[in-house]
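Late entry, evening session. Most of the bench is empty. Finally got around to the prediction I had been postponing all week. Sequence below, unchanged from the version circulated by S.P.
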Amino acid sequence: MTDSSTGGYLAPSGPVAQDAALEDQIQAAIVGVTGLAGSRVKPAWQPNPPAKEDLTVDWCAYRITSIDPNWTGAIVHHPEGEGTDELRRHETVEVLCNFYGPNASAFACVFRDGLLIPQNMEALQAQGIAFLEAGAIRAAPDFVNNQWVQRQDLLVRFRRMTSRTYQIRNVLSAEGVFVVENGNTNSWNTENT
């Protein structure tokens, strides 16, 4: 692994957060807030999509549609040991929830409103995720096998903080020349100060 003393590109140290972990946290929140069984709350995009549920079954498909970062992150230097830099950034995570079944609208409302209850957000907050807002619930029925399937869509926005550590080493000494506006120059060396 490279560090700031070697030059070149720097990759973050430590494991890279997995997309599946965020999906699992969102799935757990939908299950917990709505009361739907875990098997009835599924990622919408799967390598081997399961069969659609029966028309009489209430269920939810969800997908992360965007992760929008704030325009810049904060870099915090940690001088312990040889030193590291931590890049912290906040992101807005958009999740589109498709509620299906005879009670699709009711479950969409329960999820939207339940996110306002502080206790319902404790598990996500422990993972660094906060609820921002939920949009309008929109009817979006699907036409499957020559029949209409009840579907209600709800876009929910969450906020999370990410953190990555880079091997930016402490500056132990430096040499240089100050040129001040009047044209005078002063040499300096940090070991002398």
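Two things to note before I forget:
The chain has a mean pLDDT of 88.
The two ends are 33 Å apart (CA to CA).
Will write this up properly tomorrow.
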